[in-house]
Amino acid sequence: MSYYPYLVSAALGMASAAIVAGCSHSHPAATQTETPVIDVAEATQRGVTLYHTYPGKLHARSSIDLVARVDGYLKGQHYKNGDLVEAGQLLFTIEDTQYRNAVAQAESELKAAESALDYNTAHYEAVKQAADANAASRMEVEQARSAMESSRQDVNNARAALSTARTNLDYCYVKAPFKGHVGASGPGIGSYLSGGGAPVTLATIYDDLEVKAEFFIDDASYIDMLRDENKAIVADLDSIPVSFSDKLPHSYTGRLIYMSPDIDPSTGTLEMRAMIANPYDELRDGMYVTVKLPYASESDAVLVKDASISTDQHGKYLYTVNDSDRVVYTPVEVGDVVDDSLRVITSGIRPGDRYVTKALLKVRPDMLVKPRLSDNK
């Protein structure tokens, strides 16, 4: 008897059972892709002032070389290099012994000249009275008067010599002519200074309680400032924004104090200067500065965050979000930066249009998103 039919039957039964068992488990459903949440802002519209920026350099309001004007050894330096010193503060002393002696001698010679003048004046009066009584000749009167006048001149000369001696003594004490920062000393303590022949520079003091920003504008910008529609915005130049390569703890503005009367023909530029108050003692002579000079205004400028603008081979563009919450590639034309972070849009979008502000690399045109509105700041 053959067992083959039974084996085939058993095999078919097991396969059927396996199929039934497999069909008894349901397959998991395909996972739905969640719509991403994307930060957007609305383009705003408001009046803005437009600026041109110019590189410049700071200079102290004034600077003076402190010099030795007499001969002698440098005895002392009475400040630390770079200190802020007060007007009249003693900064250097020079050996003064010979100059004190010169003052004492000049004082003595003045006293002797004054005594001689007193004597000759009294003698002249006595001779003149004697002449009135016919007890002295006219010649004697003239001799007495001449001696008195000579004594008076001697007194004047002695006073001048004393003044010079006192001035030279004062030169031994070099003082600050105004409040400011003093640079490092050139000669060292103990150096011999030949200041009598030619002044010897000891250090430089900077009056930097205010500093001047010197910058140059091109002639085209100057002409643009003269246009009737721009005159109002450039008429008041008392608060010109300035900035520096690194952000300082405080912000600064300047007031325009000088505009050159001519344009340099070799560069086509016009020199300008703005004075900047330095109340926090942060600004220094020689610092580089960026000056933002206003040249026009727009009453209805459309603004977006400058960081949201991208660039490709076609130019500038924004990713905007339409009413269906889909991303749209939107070419734009741009203008100036306003308030350091906003950009003027001259064409491409309108006030109230939504644009993507973050995750710019994660979005693509026609992508469905969930917009999350933030401020346009």
Q: Describe it for me?
A:
The longest helix has 36 residues, at 97-132. With 377 residues, this protein is α+β, with helices and mostly antiparallel strands. Helix 2 (97-132) runs antiparallel to helix 3. The protein starts with a helix and ends with a strand. It has five helices and 20 strands.
Biggest pleated sheet:
6 strands, mixed
Element order: H for helix, E for strand: HEEEEEHHEEEEHHEEEEEEEEEEE
Poorly predicted regions are 1-31
Helix content: 25-40%
Give the C-alpha Rg: 45 Å
The tally of helices reads 5
Features:
single chain, 377 residues, alpha+beta, six-stranded mixed sheet, six-stranded antiparallel beta barrel, 5 helices, 27% helix, 39% strand, elongated
